[in-house]
Design brief:
The complex is a heterodimer. Chain A has a two-stranded antiparallel sheet. Chain A contains 21 helices and 2 strands. Chain A has helices at residues 2-14, 17-34, 40-53, 59-84, 93-141, 146-158, 160-163, 168-182, 208-225, 243-250, 252-267, 272-288, 299-315, 317-323, 329-340, 347-352, 354-385, 390-409, 412-430, 436-458, 470-496, and strands at residues 185-186, 193-194. Chain B is mostly helical. Chain B folds into 2 domains: 3-74; 79-144, no CATH class. The two termini of chain B are 43 Å apart. The chains are: A mainly alpha, B mainly alpha. At the A-B interface, helix 3, helix 8, helix 9, helix 18 and helix 19 of A face helix 1, helix 2, strand 2, helix 3 and helix 4 of B.
């Protein structure tokens, strides 16, 4: 078993004292950020990326820190869903359905404990799946040429509608906008400046960290400014988290089922965590609907979406790590983190830097255990963060964004760029055009174009090369199937309402 | 992604989506025609202008679709909210401009206090929290992380 040997190596890297400490710090910090009301995991992680650069860590250490923050944010997001009925991101929406009623009955602690265990099981199942299946996918992907990669990018963008719940055409618009923004700067092949209009600051292209922080964090603040009277937060009695453990044992079959459903939903490109939590909740409701009080605070209604959501988030790491193609909004952020550290996920990463990949996987396992240990006893502490007033939180977010971005380049230009992206993100959100595909386009555009041009120079200008191999035809067919399936699924959901 | 998703205040996007579609259509056409200025290098079957043009085609087509079949929008902000947002943007833009000439501490202090006021707090908590936040961030970056922030003029240490 090659994989096991690599994984053991990865654990050896991850349990070094410095790395363990960073994982602990990251998990705690991430949970804290994730539980900030209205900020949400994606915004939180986006905000932390520029800050993490300033620690001056080695790549593996920085990776462990960022991954722990990312996982912590995913955990923390459920706290505001359950206690305040404010989901931090789309997948957390299903958790509010039964989680908030439980909190209103004074069982908030129990719901948080239960969801903590469910998240842990879901994430662990997915991480085991990642360990088993990612090398298999890498084995296939290693045979990919530039034409196949181009097809893969087409697949990623064709299925982007599944990532976001909004309208399909608006997701495509967002993706095209991102791809177009990605071409700004010096062309990597011919060094011709494109759409720079003489601004030297953007010759290197648009820094996606600047775009990310602007699109997510700054636009969130602008959204918050619409109505500053957010102060009426009900303080609910929390109760102890320990009954949640017993409750989790009672829900074990729900958690197991949901973890597997979520995992499969996560592996499918474009499906993502939202589908994972949605599917596991609805299936569980249909399965047990008559015997439960779904929607009124059924513990299984908390366990199912949390297990499904975290399993999907882990499953989405498989296409992201082995192909370099993110399956969901949050994995897109993780991809941004990796790319910003000059780590390009894909089959070559497994070949060239196995210690990096398996160190990351080991960090996921360890982070999971840490989060469980942190969350059960300390959940009351994190819940207290929810009482921080918005007039303090939001200016803090703005300042952290400004200082973080400024410290990256020491130029005021990047600050203006970030503000511009904040306004763009705000307008897009008002138009219900999702912002995640914009980031994806910006992230993947360069690679997509590079592979297209390499394929074309191999065929000396013959476009037929793009669909000449069986693999690429298969990928295009798969993309078409997923689009049709997505449209059908949307139609069915509409019919059942 | 935000609270507005929980209780969606959705309105018809007939106006908003059509304006957005028109702007994006113009952008697609402009980017398309501008891309012909990118001169292809020697021995390149696909020059630097091809990929932008490939992206502009679907962008333009879907923008046209958006004009013809507009969807939904979130409720647009009222005038008071627009003024607050405008003030925040103006404040942050001037922060970017004053950060280097004034130094981090004075520029941030003024910005944070005014920002907290904009977010709806009274003067007293704004002054206290603004000062705490500014000094805290300065300490974190300057001393804990070792990242030099712009100092006040004449005060170099």
């Amino acid at each position: 078993m090659d994989t096991l040997a690599f994984l053991a190596q990865g654990f050896a890297v991850a349990v070094e004292p410095q790395h363990l400490f960073l994982a602990l710090v990251g998990c705690a910090l991430g949970t804290l950020i994730g539980s900030l009301p209205g900020l949400g995991p994606v915004n939180g992680v986006a905000l932390m990326i520029p800050l993490t650069f300033n620690f001056g860590l080695a790549p593996t250490a920085a990776l462990i820190l960022l991954v722990s923050i990312y996982y912590g944010c995913m955990y923390g997001g459920r706290i505001s869903s359950i206690l305040l009925n404010i989901p931090g991101d789309e997948p957390a929406m299903m958790t509010t359905l039964d989680g908030h009623p439980m909190a209103r009955q004074g069982l908030g602690g129990k719901a948080l404990g239960l969801s903590g265990v469910a998240s842990f099981v879901g994430a662990t199942v997915a991480t085991i799946g990642l360990t088993l299946f990612a090398p298999l996918l890498v084995g296939v992907a290693i045979q990919f040429g530039p034409a196949e990669y181009f097809a893969l990018f087409m697949l990623a963008f064709a299925t982007i509608g599944g990532v976001t719940s909004g309208s399909l055409s608006k997701s495509f618009i967002a993706a095209c906008l991102g791809l177009l923004l990605g071409t700004v700067g010096l062309d990597s092949v011919s060094s011709v400046p494109r759409y720079t209009f003489g601004w030297f600051e953007i010759y290197d292209g648009i820094d996606f960290i600047v775009a990310l922080v602007g699109l997510f964090a700054i636009s969130e603040c602008l959204l918050f400014l619409e109505d500053t009277r957010h102060s009426d937060k009900p303080t609910l009695k929390l109760g102890s988290a320990l009954p949640g453990m017993r409750s989790a044992w009672q829900c074990r079959s729900t958690i197991t089922r949901s973890s597997f459903i979520g995992f499969i939903a996560g592996v499918l490109p474009g499906a993502g965590a939202a589908l994972g939590s949605f599917l596991s909740y609805t299936l569980e409701k249909r399965w047990l609907g008559r015997h439960g009080k779904f929607g009124q605070g059924d513990p299984r209604g908390v366990a199912a979406p949390e297990a499904g959501n975290n399993a999907a988030a882990g499953g989405a790491l498989i296409p992201m790590l082995s192909l370099g193609i993110p399956g969901s909004g949050t994995t897109a952020i993780l991809l941004a983190m990796l790319l910003s550290m000059n780590i390009t996920p894909g089959p070559l990463l497994f070949e060239d830097q196995p210690e990096m990949v398996w160190g990351l996987v080991a960090a996921l396992f360890i982070g999971n255990v840490m989060l469980l240990l942190l969350n059960i006893p300390l959940v009351g502490l994190f819940a207290r963060v929810l009482r921080a007033p918005g007039w303090f939180l939001m200016p803090m977010v703005v300042m952290v964004a400004f200082v973080g971005i400024y410290s990256l380049s020491n130029s005021a230009f990047d600050l203006y760029m970030m503000l511009a992206f904040g306004v763009l993100g705000y307008i897009l959100r008002k138009l219900e055009i999702p912002t995640v595909p914009v980031v994806l386009g910006l992230l993947l555009g360069g690679q997509m174009e590079y592979n297209l041009r390499r394929a074309m120079s191999i065929s000396s200008g013959d476009w037929d090369i793009l669909w000449s191999s069986g693999i690429s035809v298969g990928i295009y067919a798969f993309a078409a199937t997923l689009i049709v399936a997505g449209l059908l699924f949307n139609w069915l959901v509409k019919q059942s309402r | 992604m935000s609270e507005t998703d929980v209780q969606p205040e959705r309105i018809s996007g007939v106006v908003g989506d059509r304006i957005a579609g028109a702007v994006l259509l113009v952008l697609a056409v402009a980017a398309w025609s501008y891309s012909f200025n990118f001169t292809a290098g020697f021995m390149q079957p696909v020059g630097p202008g091809v990929f932008p043009r490939l992206v502009c085609v679907p962008l333009g087509v879907i923008s046209l679709y958006l004009i013809l079949r507009p969807g939904f929008n979130q409720r647009w902000p009222h005038r008071a909210a627009l003024i607050r947002q405008g003030c925040a943007l103006a404040l942050l833009t001037s922060y970017g401009a004053f950060l280097e000439p004034w130094g981090f501490l004075p520029a941030s202090l003024v910005t944070v206090i005014l920002l907290i006021r904009l977010f709806g707090a009274r003067w007293k908590p704004a002054l206290v929290c603004g000062a705490v936040l500014t000094v805290g961030l300065y300490g974190l970056f300057e001393f804990a992380l070792g990242m030099p922030l712009p100092n006040m003029p004449g005060l170099d240490w």
